[in-house]
Amino acid sequence: MKLIRNILICAALLTPVAAGLQSCHHIEEWDNDVYGNFDALWTVLDEHYCFFGDKDVDWQEVGQRYRAAIKADWDARQLFDHCADMLDELRDGHTNLSSWFDVSYYRKWWSDYPQNYDDRLIEQYYLDFDWHSGGGFRYKYLEDRKVAYVRYSSFTVCAGESFIDNMLYSMREADGLIIDIRDNGGGDITNVERIAAHFLEERTLAGYISHKTGPGHDDFSEPYAYYFDPATKHVRWFKPVIILTNRSTFSAANNFVSVMQYLPQVAIVGDRTGGGCGMPFSSELPCGWSVRFSAAPVYDAQMQLTESGISPSAGGEVDMNPEDAAKGVDTILEFAITAINRYAEENRPDSPDAPDSPDTNRPADIGSSLTMCAHPFQPLLLRL
Amino acid sequence: MTKLFRILSLAAALVCAAAASAQMRPVLSAYTLEAGSSHLADTYLSPLKYSGFALALNYERMQAMKFDPSRWVMRMNARVGFESAQNPARNASMLDLDLSYTWGMMRRFNFSGGWSVLAGGSTGIDGGVFYNARNSNNPASAKCAWTVNAAAGALYNGRLRGIPFCARYMAELPLTGVFFGPQYGELYYEIYLGDRSKLAHCAWPGNFFRLDNLATVDLRFGATVLRLGYRCAVLSTKEAHLVTRRVTHTAVIGVASEWISLSADRSDGGEHARVISAMY
User: Which of B71, B193, B204, B212 to mutate to test the interface with A (most CBs of A within 10 A)?
Assistant: First the structure.
């Protein structure tokens, strides 16, 4: 009985110790009222948002300013609009507040710029309402212009490898490929690798990714270098590639550009991309509203942050001319077609401008002034 | 010849002695269904505490150990748990699937009046996932741990209106081990890309606290046992500024039975064998 008594005494002593250990794992709580929900939103962003330093946002000051303007008797709509205004201070297209009656967006990353894209114009005057499609792609070989055109409007869906293989192979006669990702707002970032792999010659540094290691504004991990492997058992394309971009090229589409821009056969044409290189996280407030925000920065292969967008290749900055558009001409697409045609003409084996021997590092001028590093007419590699 | 006779005599004496002290160690197998309430929180997914229901299937196997059956008991436990909970606003759900397996041994101290006390240790693996469908790039928080645990319990065997019963309380507390957890704001996409640094953490009760309390009453109706009980399981971890908490209170109901494996060509001592049960 003495042993039982001793065990019971030990258990009685250990129980509060155990309970104490558990209570050390504190989880902050907020009231479900105007101030509680505001504080929860501010705190979630304060502890998790990743671009305060890069955007020079004094979040403490922002919080104090917006909290001072709150009225305790506000209804949900008033609080929502006020919180949305506070989030706009972050100038981040990945930051949204979602309630049962509205979703907030910061739109100035594209609304202050020309749209530079007209879907109907392409379909009517270039594709003649006759194209192939599947898996998020629309494509057509513009035979009379010797150019392959691929429209990819969202990274949320992506066709299987066999579809991409077939798509590229069917346009193998083209002098170059145009990938149109204007108005592509992103989607699943894993689709970036799937598509980019068809343009890689070897294992390639795709960029760096970092994450927060704690709630402090400067608590970040060492950037981790990540690589993409080529789609060695699939069709790969090494002829010239021009990617068309505008300010609405965002998030995963921006990431695609950040990877592709350093490939030797690729040039970027159009307007600066919209950015959005912070991988978003989600959280929520006591009232049930959810909030999404940039939490993990992704850098390009040269450790450049692309949150504010990626510029076109040198000489590739082109805007849509409204007069051209009225005539059914997409200025940006025309520029790209002309660039590919000129590049092809100058590099044909019988051309006086053709290089004596292939030089994969030779900068070549395509279009009027676009500079592009490309493999001069390296044959399309087929590895099925 | 005399020497051979002596050896045979000694061997015969040993066999007789073994037969006289033959022991049977029945296996106690219990299958139980558990249902009750759950309280979930995982700050990787949400800063809010969720509440809902918990369901579990549990298999427990106990047997006296061969090397010292009257003092040592083996306990194996396999469990599948499922929790579904909602946020305070009731507009988002968090699901939790948890699989666990533990194996351990306990020293049994028998006392007069039907009382016994168990104390020992166990080791086990525990894996699962918290899932919040509303989240974008952080919808899930994977859980995996290997732990070395302290285990203790008390038994009381008695009769209630002529029905033999066994009341038991068991507790298990991990003392050390290793558990998985991402960094504070680390995406699983980054892990997918190959960054696997700082994912494994050394566990101790300060950062990995799990207390599994189980109280059962086994009512023995002949060869079949009805098991009724209550389980309170608490898990609370904190690593990389991330807190995970799961508290479940569940009612336990199930059946148990003791069985012995016999083979025709094996001498088990027959009806003279001493039966040493793990619990009863």
Answer: B193
Q: Are A210 and A223 in contact (CB under 8 A)?
A: yes
CA-nearest residue of chain B to A209? B190
Position of tokens 């992704």? A298
Domain residues for the domain of B102 are 24-275
pLDDT digits (tens, 9 = 90+) for A242-291: 999 999 999 999 999 999 999 999 999 999 999 999 999 999 999 999 99
Q: List the beta bridge partners of residue A98.
A: A103, A290
Mean pLDDT of A29-49: 98
Residue B78 CB-density burial (10 A; 0-12 exposed, 13-18 middle, 19+ buried): middle
B5 falls within a domain: no
Q: What is the mean pLDDT of residues B158-186?
A: 96
Percent over 90 (pLDDT), chain A: 79
**Interface mutation vs chain B, best among A2, A7, A13, A21, most B CBs within 10 Å:** A21
State the complex-level ipTM. 0.86
Structural domains of chain A, ranges and CATH numbers in brackets:
34-106 (3.30.750), 119-201+236-274+309-373 (3.90.226.10)
A271: closest CA among A213, A329, A320?
Answer: A320
A25 and chain B: CB distance < 8 Å anywhere? yes
Is B15 contained in some domain?
no
CB A287 within 8 A of CB A331: no
In this prediction, residues B81-91 reach a mean pLDDT of 97
Partner residues linked to A236 by β-bridges:
A381
- Asked whether residue B13 is assigned to any structural domain, the reply reads no
Task: Check CB contact of B113 with chain A, cutoff 8 Å.
Answer: no
* HSE-up (13 A, CA, CB side) for residue B269: 14
Residue B65 forms part of a structural domain: yes
Query: Measured between CB atoms, which of B132, B136, B211 is closest to A280?
Result: B136
How far is B41 from B51, CA to CA, in rounded Å? 9
Structure tokens at A326: 């009225």
